[in-house]
UniProtKB/TrEMBL annotation:
This is N-acetylglucosamine kinase. InterPro entries: ATPase_NBD, ROK, ROK_cs. The keyword Glycosyltransferase does not apply. Gene3D superfamilies: 3.30.420.40. It comes from the Bacteria. One of its GO terms (molecular function) is kinase activity. Keywords: Carbohydrate metabolism, Kinase, Transferase. Belongs to the ROK (NagC/XylR) family. It comes from Celerinatantimonas diazotrophica.
Length: 310
């Protein structure tokens, strides 16, 4: 009999708290604002949630956490720019002592990729690459059902490094691209031009028009000439680093998470464009929308807590 697992998805804004009776099954119990600044407040919030909902699980049920940030299992630390409460703390050791139960922690992009690799679009495939295109760019890699964490918890971060072109040619028109300083400290990262904020930035530069990424994508579907150009530039910028990473890792499938996962037509265009650039293309789709882009953190966490995948 598998014990229920307590699952928490800790983001910069909210903590989603749930119980999982079996991997992939999630019952959301609560959602609270994340106490970002204070470790005392954050750890106490978890104590309170676990006490409040204890009729849903056993006294020794594991707590499995999906979190934003870089999870370093060797140092037992999480670095998240938007959750300063984590800094200087050894999360797994301190939380398992405080909560008197096993604690598992993984990065949210890794949890999404794990969910897709076991229960979603990557089921039974050996190499599953998660490509997160949301507010920013992120990634995760699962090989043979296990998260590959990389040194210091950094893996599949295809949004960082000075990798974007300085110009792209769209139908013979040469378009100069801004090189913007990134939150990681470098200049010219894909992350600055390719996430939701990046699309908005591109559109503003190309057309001097301030629209949300959602508005730009909607206008593109309506064949608005300006939005079409923005999306063509975006596809050109994103496809090259993604193709490079696919040549390096040779994933069985690339599962898209984040806001872009709700745009299947755009992902199909990205798939076509990337397949024209990789060394071993196939006819079937290689880049597909994930099915767990809404709750991949909690579903991945439910897998972490049930089987020893790390
Ligand atoms: Zn960067």
């Amino acid at each position: 009999m598998v014990k229920p697992v307590i699952c928490a998805d800790i983001g910069g804004s909210f903590i989603k708290f749930a119980v999982s009776a079996k991997p992939g099954q999630i019952k959301l119990l609560d959602k609270i604002a994340t106490p970002n600044e204070s470790w005392q407040a954050l750890s106490q919030a978890l104590v309170t949630l676990i006490e409040q909902w204890q009729s849903n699980y056993d006294r020794d049920s594991a707590l499995a956490i999906s979190t934003t940030g870089i999870v370093d299992h060797v140092a037992d630390t999480v670095f998240a720019g938007n959750i300063r409460a984590y800094h200087t703390h050894q999360l797994r050791r301190e939380l398992s002592q405080l909560l008197k139960r096993p604690v598992y922690i993984a990065n949210d992009a890794d949890c999404f990729t794990l969910a897709e690799a076991h229960l979603g679009k990557g089921s039974n495939l050996p190499i599953v690459l998660g490509a997160i295109v949301g507010t920013g760019i992120g990634g995760g890699l699962v090989i043979n059902g296990k998260i590959i964490e990389g040194r210091g918890g950094v893996m599949a971060e295809w949004g960082h490094g000075p990798i974007t072109r300085t110009e792209v040619s769209i139908h013979g028109r040469l378009i100069h691209l801004p090189r913007i300083r990134c939150g990681c400290g470098q200049t010219g990262c894909l992350d600055t031009l390719a996430g939701a904020r990046g699309i908005e930035r591109l559109h503003l530069q190309l057309h001097q028009q301030s629209l949300t990424s959602q508005q730009i994508m909607t206008l593109d579907k309506q064949s608005d000439v300006q939005a079409e150009l923005t999306i063509q530039v975006w596809l050109a910028i994103v496809s090259e680093p993604l193709a490079l990473m696919m040549n390096i890792l040779s994933p069985s499938i690339v599962v898209v998470g984040g806001g872009l996962a709700s745009e299947p037509e755009l992902i199909a265009r990205l798939d076509e464009q990337v397949k024209a650039l990789i060394l071993n293309p196939i006819n079937a789709p290689l880049i597909v929308p994930g099915i767990f882009h809404q709750d991949g953190g909690l579903i991945g966490a439910s897998l972490l807590g049930t089987v020893d995948l790390l």
